[in-house]
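Sanity check

After download, print the first record. It should look like this:
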Amino acid sequence: MSDETTEILRLHAEKTEQGDRPARESIDALRADGAFALRTPRAYGGAWAGTEAIALRLSELGRACPSSAWLAGTCVTSKNLTTRCLPDEALRACFADPDALFCGSGVPRAHGERTADGVRIDGRWSYVSGCEDATWAGLGLMMDGRFSYAVVPTADLVVERTWHMAGMRGTGSHTLVASGVVVPDAHVRAAEPFGGRDLLLYGTTVLAPVVGATWGALDLTEAMFASDRKPFMTGYARMGDSPGARHWLAEAAHLARRARRTMLAVARAADDEDLPEAEIPRLRMELADAGRDCRAAVERVMDLHGTGGFAAANPLQRFWRDVSVGSRHPHLNPYLGIENYGTALAG
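Expected structure tokens:
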């Protein structure tokens, strides 16, 4: 990833948030930098990067603009599912442009019906990140009584702008609607349950932008310590003179580093083809723990900045809101993570 890409994302992060979708400049920069081809198969001109490489890339993007990184992550997920489910005939069409942005939802909120022309799809899917800018949408549906996966041109779908959130606003996670949309039969296939390594990949694509946002907040805090800012209503000449402030900074940095270490350890495990399925519940719980570490780190950072950190003009509050929302994605659910791990331990 080039420094130019991160600078473009940083410069347009506020525009991305205000528009409830990524800025065009950010989309163009991500595409040019190969972020949308991370999980395009090599046979079709992509990188087919491993989970660890994806985690590193997304976290660096998230350090500049968490919403933009989130889109690149959902593109990874959708392209992975597309590759796993569809036959070569469909893959050639979907990956004709290896840098195309994919969006999607695996929730089967629609049904498909076979017709003489292909498969007719009717339904609606909420929380589809990047749907206004994506070329293809990978969507879950029920067909012939089975959970199935379809890849549909987004131009054939209707976008309802329903995403108005406190954080991760720029992801444009609006609602997609299909009304009698017909796609070729090869673009719809029954889908098997997600494998454990795939689940770790999907969880990592959610966590990595959150880890990046945490480091973005820490960057701003370290810059504050390097400035002439001092703790309000104290005799200290600068923030670094305060033992309490130094302690809080150390805690925030420690939590941020622990979250990144955990993320990379899980990502390396996901890349191991011999990973035992019995390890998956523990690793998914660790992803959730890393999300909680991110929230705790950013809370320390907000304490150090005080009320000024919540000013609308301060980018710090955007990182705080993005971490708060992004770390609560279902893939990072802490109580279900513990529940599933406990179930596995109990046999």
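If your output differs, re-run the checksum step. Summary of this record's structure: The mean pLDDT is 96.
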